[in-house]
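Annotated sample (chain length 339).
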Amino acid sequence: MNTPDAIREAFRRGAPPRSPATLFGAGQWSIHQAGRSIRDLATDPDSMTDTVLETQKKVPSPIVFVGSGFNNLLVGALGGRIRYPRLGAPEVIAPIVIESLDEVDDCDLTELDRDPAVYTIRETARRTAEALGDSAIVAVTQWGPFTTAGQMYGLDGFLRATITLPAAVAKMTDFAVAALKQYYKPLVEKHVIGLISLADHSASSGLISRHAFAKFCLPPLIEVIDWAKSHGVGTWLHVCGNTADKWDLMIETGAVCLSLDQKVDLAMAKQVCKGRVCIAGNVDPVHVMDQGGIDDVMAAAKNCLRAGGPDGFILTTGCEMTPTTPLGNVQAMMEAITH
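Output written by the structure step:
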């Protein structure tokens, strides 16, 4: 019963026979499970594809997220400097904007089409879609436009600029929208993938106000999501933290699903979003999935199913799982829908 058709029914706010469950992202986790490293996979489509498909054999999921954990490589492809930690996702250590905002005018977005890491993610998505066929929806992940812009500009300065230099923020988010469209273009326009996944963690309520979200985050999100929708591709949208103050704005983006952090009261979110948008979540990825036992995972998953289901709901984690999450806990969350 945990099929792509059940996911699509949830996206339509319907009630499949059972609420479906999916892994969310899981890039760093699957790489760690396979005994590989993000650095090694970043430019190796053979190994990246093998890792994705190996994970799908261990834990079949109706949505397979490709590129999870590699989001910052877009900034690296356009001139930023990236560091690979021993464990975890690549980090931006030098943004694109160093001295002047005019530096983005010199960026050639077609560099994304020549970048080995971007090629690896696109090729992995193509191969994964070909291998899995109708058995899973393939999604490719990236930061949302506000977070992408912040990574390109330097996040601390970017957040200050929402107050002191709003025109600079608008210019950067416009550029980020263009970069995201270029990144996704061959995947969306050629119908390689069925879903894009945008994580706008810098738009969290802990970082910006509802007013700033409406002014700086909502318009670029709508532009990217509408563009993908015009090609028949929906969007999975995740914003970290307790997003209760902006659920109506997140619905306004046109995303087919709102992925909700573990800090969200799922029953309250269901009341607000019921009949308006599918919601997904929100088993705690650290205290439950990583640090708990199988019984803890099953109990938390069942609580989510009661609070969020049965219509327009997908069971998953509240954010990316840690690389060290036990395989048994992941399997238990996926199996909770049948108990």
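Annotation: The mean pLDDT is 95.
Annotation: Strands lie at 63-66, 81-83, 91-94, 137-143, 195-199, 234-239, 257-260, 278-283, 313-317.
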